[in-house]
Amino acid sequence: MTTRLRGMTWEHPRGYDCQVAAAAEYARRTGVEVTWEFRSLQAFADAPLEELAAAYDLLVIDHPHVPLAAAEGLLAPLDGHGLDDRLAALAASAVGSAHTSYAHEGRQYGLATDSAAQVAVLRPDLLDVVPEDWDAVLALADEGRVLWPAKPIDAFSTLMTLAANHGTPVNAEPGTFLTPEQAAPLLDLMHRLAERVPDWCLAANPIEVAEALSAGDTWSYAPLAFGYTNYSRAGFRPHRLRYVDIPRGPRGVAGSLLGGAGVAVSAHASDLDAARAYALWVASPEVQAGVYYDAGGQPGYAPAWDDDRLNADSWEFFRGTRQTLEQAWVRPRYAGYIEFQDTTSPWVTAALRGEITDAELVRRMSEQAERLLVPAPTHHLSEESA
Description:
3-stranded antiparallel β-sheet
């Protein structure tokens, strides 16, 4: 009997096309069929993981979901099932903290098949000198040449990045946010940037900014946007984009908020062993640097990031952003983090719009941090879910 698995991912060549192509190759080699479906990026983010885990064998997830998913027994650990040597090899080839971001309480719940962080992006044909620091960014913005994705989740991400880069990361101690004194210079920079970019940026995500940069000749740079290697490849859009490290701050290019996506196995998978086998296969160096990348994927592990062919094809996307990725900041590893992020993100954009004061923003976020960014009781998986 043919083994058939179902997977859910998000709607973009980087999320969907690469998995479909990889699954076709996997079926050719093994006879195991993996059918991938997708939702829009927003719908995927909004769908309860409990529902997705009940309906699908494989899931492409964001790493901040791991602690809550582990606590609720929604994901099957990958370790302890004869795969530990392969997991160790992947861990040894991680880009920064990407691999460990899918671990929780000593178990590995996903693989960083897609590594990303907030990086800078530009049009080399329109920009002679790349801004090195934030003063240079603001000067370029004064010329009307800068974009910045600042819809709620991306404005929130910028605040997190700036905090970590300034040496005052959110939740440095459990249950803490930022003091008013720590938040002031970060929010001041964000306000100054918001005043200098088009109003529509406050409702834009990194894809929309990349589309605008690659379509015309008005804008030439964005300082903080999650990288998409697709836009660095010839023929994807009218103009190619180059991704580079973030503008230097007090800690250089350290502290960018770690993003990306990883493949995980539902605890309710119809065939746990088959699902685990596919997850390990799609994360392997051969696949990541081959069919996965060629179909639009953004690989997650160092062998692909170091690959000469991939860097030549993507305008040095991987080498050009590697320092930022290696020093990226990992969001708090608590079950309440997702609720914290979802609740507070709209307030950051509201503050940029002048709808609430910075003081009110800091007060609200501090209250939510005290409530949600604290350790939860340890949850032990049953043998059935493991």
